[in-house]
Amino acid sequence: MKDLQRLVRVITELKQRQYPLLELKGVNENSSKENIFFRYVKKGIVNSDDEAAELLYDTKSDDDRYRMLKSRLKQKMLNHLYFLDFTGKGFSQFVAAKQECLQLLHLGSISRTTGERKIAKNLYHKAHTIADRFEFTREKITALEELYAIMSLNCQPHVFEQLIDEMKEARELYIKEEEAREIYFRFKMLLVKSVNSRKKTIDDVVGVIEKLAAIWKETNSANVFNYYYSMRLFYMEMIGQFEEAVPFIEEILSGKYQGKKLNVKRIDEAHLIYSLQYAFLRSKQFEKGFALTEENKNLFDPHDNNWFAFKSQHFLLAVHSKNYKLAFDTINEVFENKKFITLNKRMEEDWKLYNAYLHFAYSGNFLMRSFNFTKFVEEMPHYSKDKEGHNVAILILQFLFYVERGDIDSLVYRRDALKKYMDNHFKENFSYRTRTFFKLLNIVVENSLDLKKINQKSKYLLNKLDENQIVGSAYQEIEIIPYEHLWDLLINMIKYEKVGVH
Predict the structure, then answer these.
(1) Phi, psi of 257 (to 5 degrees)
(2) CA 98 to CA 131: how far, in whole Å?
(3) CB within 10 Å: which end of the chain, N or C, has fewer?
């Protein structure tokens, strides 16, 4: 009861004049302007400052009343960040634990500032327990620093010395963890920055992985192990070692690695399952991929973006194994998910691209829904470095579209666009498979859809395409339907005189 009495006193003396949060239950005539504004934004009633200012004050967005209201609303929404729920909803267990730990440290700091040393001590003890269990070294150090300061004020030298010894050990570990952290993020940056940067860096990654492995063996730290396995897995995907990635991921998921027990509380199971699903896809172990997907379908919340990533791999497994009925069912499930309309533009474009490709593989039975296929394939994409793989998939799709229509003039124009794109981008930025497939498409144009000539002149390139089955992720390409099958579809369009139907 004494703690409650102290908290009542602190809150009563230092409370803010106005309630610092929004009332989210509903809006009525007594609701504040902030609540009304929040509802307008949430419901999509206003989409710009001018619209909001006109509706709320019948004025322009530079009106001081509106600017102050917007500032107050933003601050109240920031206050709500303290009360977000990170349990479930696609967040790993350790994410929720990290937020709880940080909140306890913050509350402890407030309690100390207001003179409530006893309450602060209890809060720091709880933060220390969580930090120790989940190996949050930085937060553990903060808790220990605050606790030994309190023990000093309480004149408890024995406990003080214990805390000092523990903190020294934690600080030594933290230095090693920060070394690993710096190495990891520096090379991760260089590997994703650009294709040119990746090529300059990729040969150094083996040494980086060995360095991270050495630090982990020295410290047995969960933080260092996460940097090590993430970098190694990223490298394996980059160079196409998907078969080797499978046992690597499975060993980590078992809770042990090289005979050492792992802190399973710090293993991001969802991320590893996704990576294993991807490895099965790229190594053509489709049945294992389907079994993994079925076994872990409840691990991903349909209201979370991770679910869409999980379903993306499920869709690609279906398409690559030519199970088009399953691909159709999967994409149908995605479009029917109410969360779909809230996806970022890139994810939404990817799903629409999957949709369009499935049009060719599942022709005649596929409902295109609200997707305007003709508009999609006819619009030229905007080329940018971060979307080159996406652009290649669009260019190939456009080409197939005009082959199906038998539109030679458009194919010639598209061939010239492809040639320009190849000259500007393909020499360094794309895999041998993609460059080979674009050369095959050029044969189609050069021979004006003459099937006999196309078959004769494409044999060499088809053999070369077949020799290069697995490509690493370094090129960030989207081979939605394997090029071999796309070629078969293209030939069948010509062979069975489907061209010119649309």
Answers:
(1) -145, 125
(2) 8
(3) N
Backbone φ and ψ of 260, nearest 5°: -95, 135
Separation of CA 230 from chain center:
14
- Tens-digit pLDDT profile for residues 59-85: 898 889 999 999 998 998 898 888 888
H or E segment and range at residue 471 = none
Query: Rounded to whole angstroms, how far apart are CA atoms 470 and 477?
Result: 12
Which residue matches tokens 């159709």? 328
> For residues 209 and 231, is the Cβ–Cβ distance under 8 A?
yes
Give the separation between CA 325 and CA 304, rounded to whole angstroms: 25
Contact (Cβ atoms closer than 8 angstroms) between residue 323 and residue 293:
no
Contact between 240 and 471 under an 8 Å Cβ cutoff? The reply is: yes
Which tokens go with 217? 């063996």
The per-residue pLDDT for 295 is 95
418-452 burial, b for 16+ CB within 10 Å, e for fewer? beebbeebbeebbbebbebbbbbbbebbebebeee
What are the strands, taking DSSP E only, across 244-309?
256-257, 260-261
Q: What is the DSSP letter of 202?
A: G
Instruction: Retrieve residue 151's tokens.
Output: 């023990």
Amino acid at 44: G
Q: How far is it, in rounded angstroms, from Cα 299 to Cα 261?
A: 23
- Best CA proximity match to 202, nearest among 459, 474, 493: 474
Residues composing the chain: 502
For 52, counting Cβ atoms within 10 Å of its Cβ (0-12 exposed, 13-18 middle, 19+ buried), the class is buried
Q: Which tens digit of pLDDT belongs to each residue from 30-66?
A: 778 888 888 888 888 888 998 889 888 888 988 899 9
- State pLDDT tens for residues 257-268: 999 999 999 999
Task: Give CA–CA dist 39/55, Å, rounded.
Answer: 12
Task: Tell me the C-alpha distance between 175 and 304, whole Å.
Answer: 35
